[in-house]
TrEMBL record:
Record Pfam families: Rrf2
Entries under InterPro entries matching the protein: Tscrpt_reg_Rrf2 (IPR000944), WH-like_DNA-bd_sf (IPR036388), WH_DNA-bd_sf (IPR036390)
Protein name, entry field: Rrf2 family transcriptional regulator
Superkingdom per UniProt: Bacteria
Gene Ontology CC terms: cytosol
Organism: Polaribacter atrinae
GO molecular function: DNA-binding transcription factor activity
Length: 143
């Protein structure tokens, strides 16, 4: 459902959040390794998240990426929007360019509920709720 960029971005945010909750800064190379993403690709994703104030970074020998406490309340829909835009809520289930209520694909009306449920889940799930409620090691380990 999500692009690779968004999948890696969500996994990176959750890993950084888990480490930040333990008082740790995380180096980009460790993030890349933990989420099984190429370093250059991970760097671009982290840069985008930093530019949008989801994560922060500190340079230097004791530096790394963190998520500030107030950003832990960020909902997943904000991260998805930053990385993928709103196409997940509006795009065709079959990837067709011309698909809407007036000219639907065979899956169009079946996808309406799925997209609405996904939107509600993303809007009502915060970073903090995931790191508090789940065992993230199972979620973000290399696949």
């Amino acid at each position: 459902m999500f692009s690779k960029t968004c999948e890696y971005g969500l996994r990176a945010v959750l890993f950084i959040a888990q480490e930040s909750a333990n008082g740790n800064k995380v180096r980009m190379s460790l993030i890349s390794e933990e989420i099984n993403s190429p370093q250059a690709f991970t760097a671009k994703i982290l840069q985008q998240l930093k530019r949008n104030n989801i994560i922060t970074s500190v340079k230097g020998p004791y530096g790394g990426f963190t998520i500030e406490e107030d950003k832990m309340d960020t909902n997943l829909s904000e991260i998805v929007s930053i990385l993928d835009g709103d196409s997940i809520y509006k795009g065709c289930g079959l990837g067709l360019k011309q698909c809407d209520a007036n000219s639907p694909c065979p899956l169009h009306f079946k996808f309406v509920d799925i997209r609405e449920n996904l939107k509600n889940m993303l809007e009502n799930t915060s970073i903090k709720s995931l790191i508090n409620d789940m065992n993230l090691k199972n979620l973000i380990l290399k696949r």
